[in-house]
Amino acid sequence: MTQNKKRLGELLFQAGLITEVQLGAALADQQSWGGRLGTHLVRMGFITERQLIDFLSSQLDIAKINFHRSKIDVKALEKVPKQLALKYNVIPVAIKEDHGRKKLLIATADPTNVEAVSEIEFATGAAVITVLAMESEITHIIAFCYGDDKLRDNTALLEDGKKKVIEYAPRSENDLAVILAQDGREMMVGMNERNATNLGLRALINLLVKKEVITLDEFHDALQESKASLD
Description:
By secondary structure, the protein is mainly α. Among the domains are: 3-47, no CATH class; 61-162, Type II secretion system, protein E, N-terminal domain (GMP Synthetase, Chain A, domain 3). The chain has twelve helices and five strands. It has helices at 3-14, 20-33, 37-43, 49-60, 74-79, 82-88, 114-124, 135-146, 173-179, 193-196, 199-210, 216-230; strands spanning 91-98, 101-108, 127-132, 181-182, 185-186. Helix 7 (114-124) links the parallel strand 2 and strand 3. Mean pLDDT is 76; it is low at 1-6, 168-178 and 180-199.
């Protein structure tokens, strides 16, 4: 039983998301069957996948992705073989070259899996940056995007046919640039490219989201209202 697994359980207990009895039961189940502690907690009904992902995002300061609102780049899918995606239950989202080095954005339910990151980096020759997604959603997206005959993006799943940016938590500017990369350009919650490159505005939105003054959905709704008033 690794320290990381112990720590996750302790943190969830301290946050009041699970009880001590539930933690003990999940740890016993994990010891018998292996796998991730979080998977056992969800399977046993002690916590929902959404609660777990929200908690991990907050604790690890890692972005969350909504596959119905963020377009997956087929070029990223081409970099990671289906067998590798299935092995670690991950889905490549976007790829971008930065100063001659490729960066690959990967959605995973377990960003602490060093083995997965290392093998994907070795296989692709790209530096891996992780975002969080629910395990069941990743499984569904792997089946959808890789398919049986050819690769396809998730356009058919996008809400209203519109691409929107990945939900994100505060991070370094280098990581943010990769996370915002969609189809070779940077976008931010439906804003145009000029505004998307305005670092001051990005920093302000980041701060407001971090302090829970607003959510990205609220910002997007307000932006759409402002645009409508100008029409």
